[in-house]
C-alpha cells in the first residue's frame, strides 16, 4: 500500500514539473544597431506569471541576468551592460501581459555585443521551463567612397572603401552592363567598436566599362552602392589634364594682366592710388558721414582697408530667420548610451561616469533630431553657454541623412556618407567636415548658434545669434530626408531652444542675409558629396 502511494506522488510531481512550458519564436530575431527590439517569450497554455520567477540571461550567466523578475517586481540584480536598457513588455497589442503569461523582453539601444542567444527562464514552486531566443544584430555602414587614380597604361585604378558594418560585409564590383569585375584585392578590418570596415580595389579600362559600381552588402541583402564614370578620367590621362590646367591658368593670368593695365580705358576709372593723389577720397568719406561734425579724411591705405572690412562683415536679420523656426527635439530611441537627455528632449550632455580617452574629439557622442526634412527652409537655435560659464569649446552641430546609424569614427563623417556639420574642437578651432575641410577661428565664440537648413537650394547656414552675424554656409545637394545632428562634447550641456515668435514689421522685404556692400565676400563652402 505504501509503495502505491509513493508511485502516485511521484507521478503527481512529474505531471506538475511538465505543466509549465514556455514558447519562443522558431526563427532568429533580426534588428539594427541602435534600435529597440522585443524578444518574445510566453507560457503555453496561458497562465499568470505574476507570482513566478522570470529570468532572462546570456549563455552561462544565470547568476548575472539581463533581467530578473521575482516576488512581484524587477530585482536590482542585473548584468551591467544591459542596465537601463531592458524591461518586460508585451509581445503584441493583443497580449494580456503577465496575467496571461507574456514574459517577453524589450531591449533598447541595441549594440553589436547583443548579437547571440538570450535564454528565457520561468519557474514556479514545483516546475520550471526555459527556451532560447537568438538575436541577430546588423549594422548598415557608410556609402562606399570611390577614388580613381589613372595608370600609365591607360587604365584607372579605383579604390572603394566603407565602414560601420556588422556582421562582416561582402564587396562586389560590376560594370554598367551588369558584368562582374574581378577585384585586385579586398581587405576587412574590425575596430574597437566591433564594427567592420572593408576596402577593395580594381583596375579597369574603357573596354571593360564606362560606369563602375562598387556594392557593399550583408547576407540579409541590405547593401549600399557607389558609382564612378571613368570615361573622362581615362580619355584625358594625367599629362593631358596637367597641360590643360596649365593652359587655362596661363590664359586667365594674361586676361587679368591686360584688364589691370588698361582698366582706366575700359572702365573710365583710375586706380585708388591715383584717386587719392587727386584728392577725390572726399566722396568716400561723405558716403560714410551723416553728422555735422567733420571726420578726419583717411589716407589711401586706410580708406581701402575700411572698405574691405565693411564688405567682409555680414549682418543677419534674426527676426527674418525665425520666421522659418521649427521645434526640434532629440530622438530618444537613437542616442549614444553615454549621453543623457532630459524628459523634454531639449537638453543633452555626457554621462558623469563617461571617460574619454585620448585627445581626439568624441565623435561618437551624437544625438539626432526627431524631426526630418525633405524640402523647404527650417531654422533652429542651440544654446552653447550656461549661467556663469564661458561658451562651450567642444560641440558638433549640423544635419545628417535620416536613417544613418550612430557615429563610430571621424572617417565616416563625410558629405558622401550623409553628414554636414560645423565642429568646435577646443584649441584646434572651428572646421567643417566638407571634402576640403575648412579651418578657421571665431572671436568671440558663439554663445547661441542659429542653424538654417535650406533644403531646396542645398544650403546649410550657421549664425552667431547674440552677435547677429552670419558665420558660414555649406553648399551641397541633399536627397531623401535629413535630420538635425548634435554632439555636446564632454563635461557640459547644450540646449535646443524654442525660438520666440518674430515681431512682424510693417513692411518686411529684407533678405535673410543683409550685406552693406554689393560686392561683399561670402563665407561659403562647396561640397559635392552625393547621397
Automatic annotation (TrEMBL):
The gene is LOC109082965. Pfam families: C2-set_3, SPRY, V-set. Its main location: membrane. Residues 1-19 form the signal peptide. Residues 507-524 have a biased composition (Polar residues). One of its GO terms (biological process) is regulation of leukocyte cell-cell adhesion. Residues 34-136, 144-229 form the Ig-like domain. This is Butyrophilin subfamily 1 member A1-like isoform X3. The chain crosses the membrane at residues 241-260. Residues 308-503 form the B30.2/SPRY domain. It is found in: Membrane. It is a single-pass type I membrane protein. One of its GO terms (cellular component) is external side of plasma membrane. Residues 281-306, 506-531 are annotated as: Disordered.
Amino acid at each position: 500500500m505504501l509503495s502505491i502511494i509513493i508511485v502516485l506522488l511521484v507521478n503527481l510531481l512529474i505531471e506538475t514539473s511538465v505543466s509549465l512550458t514556455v514558447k519562443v519564436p522558431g526563427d532568429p530575431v533580426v534588428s539594427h544597431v541602435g534600435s529597440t527590439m522585443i524578444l518574445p517569450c510566453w507560457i503555453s497554455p496561458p497562465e499568470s506569471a505574476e507570482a513566478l520567477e522570470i529570468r532572462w540571461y546570456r549563455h552561462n550567466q544565470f547568476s548575472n541576468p539581463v533581467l530578473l523578475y521575482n516576488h512581484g517586481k524587477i530585482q536590482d540584480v542585473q548584468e551591467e551592460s544591459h542596465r537601463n536598457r531592458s524591461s518586460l513588455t508585451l509581445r503584441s497589442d493583443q497580449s494580456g501581459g503577465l496575467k496571461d503569461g507574456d514574459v517577453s523582453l524589450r531591449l533598447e539601444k541595441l549594440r553589436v555585443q547583443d548579437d547571440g542567444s538570450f535564454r528565457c527562464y520561468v519557474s514556479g514552486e514545483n516546475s520550471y521551463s526555459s527556451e532560447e531566443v537568438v538575436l541577430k544584430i546588423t549594422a548598415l555602414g557608410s556609402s562606399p567612397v570611390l577614388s580613381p587614380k589613372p595608370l600609365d597604361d591607360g587604365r584607372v585604378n579605383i579604390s572603394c572603401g566603407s565602414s560601420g558594418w556588422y556582421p562582416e560585409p561582402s564587396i562586389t564590383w560590376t560594370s554598367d552592363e551588369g558584368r562582374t569585375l574581378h577585384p585586385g584585392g579586398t581587405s576587412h578590418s574590425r575596430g574597437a567598436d566591433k564594427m567592420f570596415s572593408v576596402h577593395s580595389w580594381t583596375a579597369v579600362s574603357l573596354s571593360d566599362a564606362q560606369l563602375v559600381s562598387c556594392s557593399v552588402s550583408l547576407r540579409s541583402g541590405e547593401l549600399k552602392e557607389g558609382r564612378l564614370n571613368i570615361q573622362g578620367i581615362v580619355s584625358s590621362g594625367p599629362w593631358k589634364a596637367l597641360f590643360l590646367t596649365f593652359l587655362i591658368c596661363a590664359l586667365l593670368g594674361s586676361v587679368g594682366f591686360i584688364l589691370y593695365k588698361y582698366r582706366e580705358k575700359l572702365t573710365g576709372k583710375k586706380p585708388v592710388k591715383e584717386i587719392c593723389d587727386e584728392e577725390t577720397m572726399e566722396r568716400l568719406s561723405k558716403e560714410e558721414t551723416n553728422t555735422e561734425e567733420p571726420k578726419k579724411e583717411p589716407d589711401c591705405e586706410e580708406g581701402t582697408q575700411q572698405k574691405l572690412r565693411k564688405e567682409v562683415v555680414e549682418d543677419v536679420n534674426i527676426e527674418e530667420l525665425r520666421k522659418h523656426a521649427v521645434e526640434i527635439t532629440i530622438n530618444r530611441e537613437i542616442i549614444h548610451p553615454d549621453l543623457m537627455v532630459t524628459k523634454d528632449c531639449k537638453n543633452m550632455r555626457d554621462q558623469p561616469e563617461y571617460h574619454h580617452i585620448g585627445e581626439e574629439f568624441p565623435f561618437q557622442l551624437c544625438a539626432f533630431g526627431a524631426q526630418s526634412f525633405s524640402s523647404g527652409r527650417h531654422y533652429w537655435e542651440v544654446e552653447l553657454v550656461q549661467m556663469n560659464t564661458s561658451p562651450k569649446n567642444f560641440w558638433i552641430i549640423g544635419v545628417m541623412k535620416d536613417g544613418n546609424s550612430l557615429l563610430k569614427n571621424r572617417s565616416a563623417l563625410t558629405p558622401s556618407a550623409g553628414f554636414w556639420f560645423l565642429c568646435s574642437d577646443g584649441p584646434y578651432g572651428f572646421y567643417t567636415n566638407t571634402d576640403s575641410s575648412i579651418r578657421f577661428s571665431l572671436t568671440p565664440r558663439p554663445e547661441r548658434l542659429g542653424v538654417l537648413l535650406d533644403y531646396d537650394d542645398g544650403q546649410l547656414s550657421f549664425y552667431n545669434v547674440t552677435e547677429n552675424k552670419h558665420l558660414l554656409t555649406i553648399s551641397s545637394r541633399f536627397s531623401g530626408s535629413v535630420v538635425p545632428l548634435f554632439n555636446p562634447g564632454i563635461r557640459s550641456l547644450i540646449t535646443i531652444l524654442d525660438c520666440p515668435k518674430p515681431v512682424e514689421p510693417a513692411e518686411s522685404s529684407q533678405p535673410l542675409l543683409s550685406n552693406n556692400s554689393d560686392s561683399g565676400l561670402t563665407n561659403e563652402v562647396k561640397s559635392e558629396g552625393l547621397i
